Amino acid sequence: MGVQGLTTYVEGNRRFLQDVKFRDSRLVIDGCSLYFRLYFNHCLDQQHGGDYDAFSCLLSQFFAALAACNIQPYVVLDGGIDPSNKKLPTLRQRLLSKIKEADSLSHGRNGWVLPILTRDVFIQVLTQRGIPLVQCPFEADREIACLAHQWSCPVLTNDSDFYIFDLPGGYLPLHFFQWTNLNGKASHHYISARCYTTNGLCRWFGGLNKMLLPLCAVLTGNDYGAPKGAETLLSLLDLNVSARGGGRGKGNASRIERLLIWLSSFSSPVEALEEVSRLMGDGLKAGSRLSSQLWVGMQEYHITPQSTLARWFSGGKAAPRGWISGLPECLSLAAAQGLLAPLVVDTVVMRRVLLIPQVENSKLASSHWSARALRQAVYGILLLRGHDAQTQVHESIKQGARVEAHPPRYPLSRLGILLEVLGIKEAALTPVPRHLNLAVAVTGFWLQEATPTPSQPQLQALVLGMVYGELSRNSQPGNQQAGEKRGLDVGMAHSLSQWQACLWTALCLNQLLLLPMPEPHLSCENILYICCPLSLCFRLFSGTLVHGLFKCLKGGRAAESLLGGGSGQLYSSLLDAAKNCGCKAKPPSSAAERRKRGQRRGRRGRGRGGRGAWSGCRGTEEINNMFALLMSEDESDDYDCN
Fold first, then answer.
1. Does residue 425 contact residue 440 with C-beta atoms inside 8 Å?
2. What one-character DSSP code corresponds to residue 38?
3. What is the DSSP-derived secondary structure letter of residue 195?
4. Does residue 382 surpass a pLDDT of 50?
5. Using CA atoms in the order 529, 530, 535, 540, what is the torsion angle rounded to 10 degrees?
6. Which pLDDT band holds residue 222 (cuts at 50, 70, 90)?
7. Is 574 exposed, middle or buried (0-12, 13-18, 19+ CB in 10 A)?
8. Integer Cα distance of 450 and 464 in angstroms
9. CA 573, 475, 65: angle at the middle one, nearest 5?
10. Do residues 17 and 175 make contact, with C-beta atoms less than 8 angstroms apart?
């Protein structure tokens, strides 16, 4: 969430923020605020599809700084769209804004667009480092506040709603959290920060009742918007509504201050709401309706004494209370661990998904179109229950579209479902290292589905990028110095955005199927421990690197000349496998073959990677419920829910 103009007002008044030397404490971190702040504030690549290796290194440095100061982080992530739909207009506006910014970046202008796999890299790095993490079902603000309140520790975020929550440990704005410059002796390092508490703000306004701060937020307008009638009320209060045009941030800040002065004249929210009814017309529906709407909005800031997340972070083995009904327990647990994408929650709860904008050729269809078949499979697994059932999911990107859910055509193992949807044969992956199976399979799918069809140099550059981490960074032709500008090949950017859309959706499908294929490392494996300009590491994708390699190939360099010693064989294996995967696998050609396959699947037996899936299912109805496949006796053992 966020309260309009509140950050500008508070940060413009230093008396509300206290300098602190932060160390030896728990810290509840708003995960989404953190990865946005780190990525954008350190000027990491957006134009070329993202540099996930640099981002993972930055994350490693951040959490190392916390450890050096004996700060114990607990990261909380937002999940899906708020099911009340109250925030949907705000989300749509942001989506449209990001689409415009992505288009601006594609033309070499400024913009702020987070690369599509940033969140996945963030979760991978935290999981690898053992950082405690939870993903909430929907927006996490109130859960974060309740946890910090119970633990009496501060919250680290950039969300202005935390100027409203009454937190005994306070709120540390990321803007003032100087983690890159540790102070103090080695055994007593600390991070310089500024801490906000509601005590200071309320004292300044003559002992304002803290319980009135949520009313200020709702009247001013947050991500849920202001209730109808709020503008009329503010006009009646003579709060200078027209002052918005008086300079950047000035109008909103003035409104907040005057509103706080007015609220300070009341002893309680009840008294203030009674005055609202009187001003709007005592006895008229408008006044009572607005008061009711304001009261409902204020409840978004209500803090419960016992946090549902405290038990989770204390070693709970089940998803926190309030998780999604309709998901099997194992999937709920995976989602809480951050191992199931919010797209799954949005599909189950809303039948609506907001796809992530990317830098692409805006004259062509969205890069997400290439992954449509993968998303249809996700929707089918989650929503369809019978042979003849049909349903649609509303997708928002560029122009909204309703997409039909398509379950797999035949009852298959979990691995079989993944391979069928990707349109590849398992034998094509035999030469590929197991941890790269999904990446290569997705590359084959991309060759089938991308429009325009990827060129040979585009494919070569992508595969070279997968193996190129064995060379030192200072010898990479795709490497560029910080701040160096490079012209963007929009065709290459569009093609790589299609590949990333395919990988992002395939990761979601693989997670939903309980990982029949191991997830690829999206960034460096050893960069968690060695972060220096010359570190050697494997990385799956680096946007600036792949664009640089593509430029070399277009300039006439042979792909083999760009490889270091010993990596030629891996490159050839990956390239050949991707091409073989690009030859679409054929479905069974006759009813007899389908019957034979069904008989084979009916026999009991288990295998690695999701084989033998249907031995535990009973009856047609259960077979057509994809969740029955996920929970079947034989295959659920392959997935660790603990």
1. no
2. H
3. E
4. yes
5. 30
6. confident
7. buried
8. 19
9. 100
10. no
CA separation for the pair 306, 149 (Å, rounded): 9
What 3-state DSSP class applies to 580?
A: helix
CB count in 10 Å sphere of residue 131: 19
First and final C-alpha spacing in the chain: 32
Res 227 pLDDT > 90? no
d(CA 505, CA 511): 10
Q: How far apart are CA 65 and CA 58, in angstroms?
A: 11
Contact (Cβ atoms closer than 8 angstroms) between residue 162 and residue 172: no
Instruction: Please give the domain boundaries of the chain with CATH numbers for all domains.
Output: 16-203 (3.40.50.1010), 337-581 (no CATH)
Residues 6+ apart with CB under 8 A from 118: 35, 39, 50, 52, 55
Q: Which residues pair with 155 in a beta bridge?
A: 28, 171
Lookup: tokens for 596: 């034979």
Tokens standing for residue 576: 């050949």
CB 638 within 8 A of CB 610: yes
Do 223 and 159 contact (CB within 8 A), yes or no? no
Backbone φ, ψ for residue 70 (5° rounding): 55, 45
Cβ atoms of 560 and 568 within 8 Å: the answer is yes
Helix/strand number for the chain, H first, E second: 26, 10
469 phi and psi angles, rounded to 5 deg: -65, -10
Q: What is the DSSP letter of 446?
A: H
**Residue, of 550 and 595, whose pLDDT is higher:** 550
Question: Can the peptide bond before residue 477 be classed as cis, meaning omega within 30 degrees of 0?
Answer: no
- Mean pLDDT, rounded, for 332-337: 92
pLDDT at 316 (0 to 100): 76
DSSP structural state of residue 138 = S
Contacts of residue 619, defined as CB under 8 A and 6 or more positions apart, other chains included, come to none
pLDDT recorded at residue 329: 86
pLDDT score recorded for residue 313: 95
User: Looking at the chain, how many residues does it have?
Assistant: 642
Distance (Å, rounded) from C-alpha 326 to C-alpha 341?
16
Question: Of residues 505 and 598, which shows the higher confidence score?
Answer: 505
In the three-class reduction of DSSP (H, G, I as helix; E, B as strand; rest coil), residue 30 is classed as strand
**Two tokens at 505?**
């959706």
564 token code pair: 């270091």
* Token couple for 451: 């429009």
Residue type, 332: S
Q: Are 421 and 584 in contact (CB under 8 A)?
A: no
Q: Using CA atoms, how far apart are residues 293 and 280, in angstroms rounded to an integer?
A: 13
Residue type, 86: K
CA proximity to 543, closest of 619, 482, 479: 479
Angle formed at CA 43 by CA 37 and CA 44, multiple of 5 degrees: 90
| Nearest-angstrom CA–CA distance, 252 and 446 | 48
pLDDT for 232 equals 74
Amino acid identity of residue 164, one-letter, is I
Asked if residues 74 and 313 have their Cβ atoms less than 8 Å apart, the reply is yes
Tell me how far the alpha carbon of residue 601 is from its chain's centroid: 37
What Rg do the C-alpha atoms of the chain give, in angstroms?
27
Contact 200, 15 (CB under 8 A): yes
Average of pLDDT values for 429-449?
95
Please say if the pLDDT value at position 604 is more than 80. no
| 3-class secondary structure, 286 | helix
